[in-house]
Amino acid sequence: MSAAKLHHVKTETFDVAARTNTDPKGFVRPVDEYRVEPWGLYMARPADHPQFGYLESWLLPEPGLRVSIFHFRPGFERDQDRYVDVGSFQVDGSVWHSRDHYLDLVVRTGRGTTVEDVDELFAGVAAGLLEPEDAERAVHIALAAVDGIAAHGYDLDAWLSALGMPLSWR
After folding, report:
1. Which residues pair with 152 in a beta bridge?
2. Is 130 left (phi over 0), alpha (psi -120 to 50) or beta?
3. If you count Cβ atoms within 10 Å of the first and of the last residue's Cβ in the chain, which end, N or C, has fewer?
4. What are the tens digits of pLDDT across the range 61-74?
5. Other CB atoms within 10 A of residue 147 CB
6. How far is CA 66 from each of CA 39, 59, 106, rounded to the nearest angstrom?
């Protein structure tokens, strides 16, 4: 892995009361909608990213997943229905905190799931940016998600619904 791909663990803050999302680069973004459920937090907000203009995400502490739909701009569409970050999530009152553990899943509903950024996980551990225990947990989370999604016809939402976490989207 090249040094250019090595990066610190990405952290974000989701302030439900203030309706803001502080992204990994420290930019505070306004949020259109937050919805708190017993199993997680839903967020919908505009994005000023060159490739996508809107972002919807669910933070799911119990399975250790952040499930997102990126609304891509014309010409930047990707062959994915859901993008999943593996990580840890903590709640402090109305503020949620996320810590990304490098591994990502790309879900193509009804067709398959791929695991991405394994090289980043190993590089992060080697550089001391992620504890080995957190990396091991991330691998277990990713493998459990791949198995669960596959067992539900490669439908991530169906798998999570079966776990008692029915997701809804805009």
Report:
1. none
2. beta
3. C
4. 999 999 999 999 99
5. 12
6. 12, 5, 12
Tokens of 92: 């402090």
Residues 74 and 52: their CA atoms lie apart, in Å, by 9
Could you tell me the CA-to-CA distances from 108 to 87, 104, 114, 155 in Å, in that order? 21, 13, 9, 8
User: pLDDT (tens digit, 9 = 90+) per residue, 65-113?
Assistant: 999 999 999 999 999 999 999 999 999 999 999 999 999 999 999 999 9
Residue (of 154, 161, 60) closest to 108 by Cα position: 154
For 65-99, b/e burial (b = at least 16 CB within 10 A) is bbbbbbeeeeeeeeebbbbbbbbbbeeeeeebebe
Rounded CA gap, 170 and 166, in Å? 14
**Domains of the chain: residue spans and CATH:** 3-161 (2.40.380.10)
Phi, psi of 122 (to 5 degrees): -65, -40
Beta bridge partners of 112: 108
